[in-house]
# Entry
Amino acid sequence: MEHCFRMEKIKILVVEDEAPIQELLQFNLERSKYKVRVVDSGEEALGVASQYGPDLILLDIMLPGADGLEVCKQLKSNPRTERIPIIMLTALCEEADIVTGLELGADDYITKPFSPRVLLARVKAALRRIAGGKGSPGGDEVVSIHGITIDANRHKVEVDGEDVALTFTEFKVIQLLAQQPGRVFTRYQIVDAVHGEDYPVTDRSVDVQIVGLRKKLGPAGKYIETVRGIGYRFKEDS
# Structure
């Protein structure tokens, strides 16, 4: 049975130590009818996350004491909190940390400074993904977005009703990305999801797959977006 969030009951935990950003986040989230709890350290976040049971966590990377990456790692290794989506808050210069956070299990990231509109869009997208129960390849039998239809049972992809011939790997890549539009996947996450962990493929080989996939999709290839220094995502359906 599909789980549905009721807007007035959605709880968001904000983990941020800078007061002005705390206030900005809390103001905009509460104005959008979310229930917000704010903490300013990683240690406090770990305790509150287990007891408060948030539907989503906004987690700053640069925190006093246990930093955001360590907090993310511990949250994802705890059965009580592993399924809570995490959006990281990062500075523009923290690309390496963004990749690490995504590989630790974070769902998305927002770079500072950010606009309230971007913040709320990312939050809503993450909540939609968890509410829909979408996951790894094979989770949805048919995915339709931007005129692209992906049929897992028939192992078939159509663009505006026209068949597109894809290799096994190309099919798995587009299925993974299209099932979770808006979510950023690192190259290593794509390799792991498609081939399994420890598969002997370099991250750059993913770039080659993406180039070939975009070419076969034609104009629809633009919906596979490159996130510089991080990886790829499928454009959300507006």
In short: The two ends are 26 Å apart (CA to CA). The chain has a mean pLDDT of 85. Helices lie at 19-31, 42-52, 68-77, 95-104, 116-132, 168-179, 187-195, 203-217.
